[in-house]
Amino acid sequence: MAVTIKDVAAFAGVNPSTVSRVIKDSPSISDKTKIKVRKAMETLGYTQNAAAKILASGKSGAIGVIFPPIENKQSRPFFMKILSSINEEARNNDITVAIATGHSIEELEKQVRLMYSEKRVDGFIVLYAGQSDPVRQYLITENIPFVLVGTPSEMQNEITYVDNDNKLLGKEAVAYLADKDHKHISFVTDTEEGVVFEERYMGFHEELVKRDLVGKLLHFDENNFKVDGESAVIVMDDPLALMVIQSINKQGLNVPDDVSVLSFNNSVFASLIHPYITSFDINVARLGEVAVEKLSELINSDDKSKIYSEKIIVPFYLKERESVK
């Protein structure tokens, strides 16, 4: 027969209500009483079931991970890698993970609302930082604990977020190539949306001007992309870098002998085919770990008024391979 709170109370010589308050770690109970009650729980082998834990603490012991409403998430290594990191860190802290996903932003918001209203999760990690996002607005309006992976385009002072210094990444990319005597360097992208692009390109441009180098922004079109005098290009991410290398080869040029290619994220795509791509590793594993750490702090804070929004910057490093000469 399962041991109950009443059994623990009788063994410890206290009221059942005292045992309940000890389980909640109430500050109204003395340390001496807490020790006595916890010893009784250990001696009797008392364990709470999941429902009792939720009732006692008001917390589910779970966090939600919100994916962006895009197709083929499995083909994007960032999402799989950071989810693995989040799962590992959560498991180390006895936290379970639930996934929120949807084909549209409306569908996604509906799922997030349902998950929180049914107390299935205590807070969320949001894996995207789009503009005018109703999901993020709901979390803010309802004062729901959440951490953003990426840099929000608005309300940066009210949101806790974890990211790399993307502007510095752009600067470091130019500096690395300039130190190898490249003087004509362009930035290649297939999108101008989002803070990541804006900051990486801004860093690129500022460092280019600072060093008095030649370069421009190139928009990638698979059917009509050519380099024009560049000795090196900096590409928005690794999958795009693969397509850029293929296009350069179609021009009759060689990477890296004629054109060097430098990329970001150091994903599985960087070492898929030769030449392997020199790429900045954005430390995705650490991004996931920090997101769980910060969300746990937000969820478990006794005084929400003393919780301040934070910007946490995770360092990056360069993985040198074959695509830069």
From TrEMBL:
Record keywords: DNA-binding, Transcription, Transcription regulation
A GO MF term: DNA-binding transcription factor activity
InterPro entries reported for this sequence: HTH_LacI, LacI/GalR-like_sensor, Lambda_DNA-bd_dom_sf, Peripla_BP_I
SMART domains: HTH_LACI (SM00354)
Cited CDD domains: HTH_LacI
Top-level division of the source organism's lineage: Bacteria
Provenance organism: Floricoccus tropicus
Entry keyword Transcription regulation: yes
Span of domain HTH lacI-type: 3-57
Gene3D superfamilies linked: 3.40.50.2300, lambda repressor-like DNA-binding domains
SUPFAM superfamilies in UniProt: lambda repressor-like DNA-binding domains (SSF47413), Periplasmic binding protein-like I (SSF53822)
Protein's recorded name: LacI family transcriptional regulator
